[in-house]
Amino acid sequence: MSASLDALLCVQTTVLWLALLAPSLLGLWAWRFPPQRMLPVLLAGLPLPLATLWLLHRVSVGGEFEGAWSPGGLLLHWRLDGLAGLLLLLTQLLLLASATYAVGHRRATTLAECAFAGFWPLLGGLAAALGLIWVAADLLILYAALELMGLCAVGMMLLPGKGEALVAGMRYLLYALVGSLAWLLGVALLLGSSGRLDLAGLAATTEPGPVTGIAMALLATGLLLKAAIFPLHGWLAPVHASAWPSVSALHGALVVKASFFILMQLWQRLMPEAVAAAWLLGLLGSLAVLWGGLQAWRASDLKQMVAWSTVGQLGYLMLAFPLLAGTSVAVATLAWQATWLQLAGHALAKAAMFMAAGNLVLSAGESRLTGLAGASRRLPLPLMTFGIAAVTLMGLPPSAGFTAKWLLLQAAILAGQWLWVAVLMAGTLLAAAYVFRVLRCAFVETAPCHEVRPLPAGMDLMALLLALGALGLGLGAEWPLALLREGGRP
Amino acid sequence: MSLSGELFPASLLVILAVACLLDRHLVRACLAFIAFALLMALAWWRLDAPWLALVEAVLGALLTGMALFHGLGRLGGQSSLPSRDRERRPRRQVMARWPAALVWLALAGAAVWGVTGNGELAASAEVSRRPLLAAGLAIMALGLWAFAHHLHLLRRLLAFNVLGSGVFLLLAGLAGPVVEVQGLILVGLVVALVGSVLGAALLRRLYALDGRVTLGDGPKSIR
């Protein structure tokens, strides 16, 4: 009996590591032979989400599983629980959509041959880094994966190779490098005070005190810089201005969220009871919601609007900190589920929105909002995709955004923290304001009819599938929420 | 290893960091950085981490140095950048850069004090690491100030590298040369090298495109 269980565990571990490492091998393969059609890319990537689904099934039956890996005297820990599995599944689906979209983008426009080839190994590296971040239970793996992710993201942003892209990319590179040094200093303090690097050991041996506080402040600064949370968000919007839609989609959907995920993991283990610091993070998140929404409303460029809306939507995630610190079990459970549902819903919707915006801009040849006049007649499908994605961002039923905000609202009311209720309301109104501004421009009927460039059907289809996925996640939220209830919270 | 024996290399590290960060002559600054990295390698050697010393010498001194000289255009026959940094930050901004470095230094210093102070009787190995800790703190503060103050992108890359070395020194000084520390520093060195190579390549592209050597958040660059 136990022999067969051991064998099953061994198979699970092998499948997990194959699923984590296969994308980088595929990326190297595609570097050598850049794909020309969408279908082969889709078929090559499809086994990965299926493998992760099987792993998730095993986790829901047998509980989380973990292990360690020891190269040269080091002990590196990893574990797969419900939350990590769900995020891995989300990552693989989004990477697949982005890769397919990139092939279509290549067919629709003339991209430089070497830039397009360079996209693939960077995508593979990003996939490996994100996968490692979700399963890591060790500060050393987290550090390596965080840096790999940051450097791959900078490289992808630089692919267009134009002047403004280079300046924005350079600024992003400098911020990311300094952010990683702040993180490393925090790790140094933790290692110096407790002598451990694994998260479980740190949680057991670290007691709250000034050293832990300062270490956590440094770690949080580095991560907030990388996650573009409110006062440290300056690099985000310029970087997206000239990036490819497939890259923007991945960046807005996953890269900034990974830093938030790490911060949440560390916070829950090292200082779960620090109410004042948690409120500070919540207030920063509230300011992000308001400021991001306002800037998105003022933006005159479609991609800038979507980028600023990312700043605003990330703010909702930060509200989890005050709702989890020192509150009752019921509130904490609601806030925990709401946060990850918001993260997943926003990831799907934001990727769909970047792709739909990219389709609109590519077809119309115009990135200003006023240039979209008459898009309702000329480009109905991308505009509809944009609208469906916006439903999730605004939090209208039945989307994932609605369910997440509903849970968050319940948690805030139950905890008596009325400030967040006001922030949620204001954020929703702002989101509606900036989305309807785009739609108003698009529905101008008197616009002269320009030529539109036809795009491969797959590009519209990918964006639409992601937008519908965000909508469907609100209807079928029971399964992921059940998995989250099982575990993931230390 | 005695305390006084450690004082000399530690103070030499700080002096080289100052030379690297304050010199407006870019070639001299890069040479100072290479010397600084070689001295770092020596420090790892003395801490009984020969592999780390080797990696530091190859990645930190040799390859990063080559990347920096490539950024300057002194490797190969391309057009080279002006060898002096003539960018000046407006006086109003200059004053605002100091508090950031001081707050950082105060935070890190307090935390280091907390970590080393609350241990039981310090072993002799730990006492001999004290100069390294102090040098790490000083180098970190210098690097952060320089990163925030300088406008020239090559000098910011230098400042980032020095700042990183300061963090590594602090890491080794706090926890000793255990295998976890060596792993962290190894990853950090690789990241710093990739960042420097990417930054130097970007700097060359920007200079080739419109002759700028700054990010443009300060005064316009002078051709």
Write a structural description.
- Chain B: This is Putative MnhB-related membrane protein.
- The complex is a heterodimer of chains A (about 500) and B (about 220).
- Chain A has 21 helices and two strands.
- The two termini of chain A are about 30 Å apart.
- Chain A has a domain at about 285-490.
- The mean pLDDT of chain A is about 90.
- With about 500 residues, chain A is an all-alpha fold.
- With about 220 residues, chain B is mainly α.
- Helices cover about 75% and strands about 0% of the residues of chain B.
- Chain B contains seven helices and no strands.
- Chain B has helices at about 5-20, 25-45, 50-70, 90-115, 125-150, 155-175, 180-210.
- Classes of the chains: A mainly alpha (about 500), B mainly alpha (about 220).
- Chains A and B meet through helix 6, helix 7 and helix 9 of A and helix 4, helix 6 and helix 7 of B.
Number of strands of chain A: 2
Q: Give the CA-CA distance, first to last residue of chain A.
A: 30 Å
Q: Which two chains share the most extensive interface?
A: A-B, 41 and 43 residues
The largest sheet of chain B, given as strand count, sense and whether it forms a barrel, is: none
Give the strand content of chain A: under 5%
- Helix segment tally of chain B: 7
| Overall pLDDT confidence of chain B | 82
- Could you estimate the helical fraction of the residues of chain A in percent? over 70%
Domain NADH:quinone oxidoreductase/Mrp antiporter transmembrane (chain A): 136-429
Subcellular location (chain A): Cell membrane; Membrane
Pfam family, one (chain A): Proton_antipo_M
Main location (chain A): membrane
